Structure prediction request, 185 residues.
Amino acid sequence: MILPISCFGSPILRAKTKIVSFDQSTKDLIHNMWETMYNANGVGLAAPQVNKDLRLFIIDTSSFQDDNDFPNHIPLKEVFINPIIKKEEGERWEFNEGCLSIPDIREHVKRKSVIHIDFYDENFKLKSKKYTGINARVIQHEYDHLNGVLFIDKISVLKKRMINRKLKDITKGKFNTSYKIRLFK
Prediction:
């Protein structure tokens, strides 16, 4: 089932999330999140974006496979349940990020190039992995959602002022998307 995506201004996007317990409802939510993300042409989706205050996100970076900016990219499709980033390292690099919860806005964000993360997969098997490049970036972006942080929180004050009107328009529903959304009223 395709779920509506919560947009900027929704309190759930600023909330700290709760630990996920593994049961059938978690499996169902994961299935629905995959459908929702693919329907919206996203590369990642966190539970708060579908109005769930849970420590869960999914990513599929296969769309970067043919991108000339990432010639050595190895696609990653993964479910992250109760993740903990243990370490961020490497150089900070800038990339133009967007977010399904903040339609029509993209900004350059600096993030570390390497992360080490512990998480449970969709079978609730504990994993400890290292990710690099665009995979690390997408994971960091989605992980931020679990702590109430949005990519616009990582841009300069000047850039934030420049997009302030667009952000206000999003809270009023003045934007276009091809996917189902949820506005906070």
Remarks:
- The mean pLDDT is 95.
- The first helix runs from residue 24 to 39.
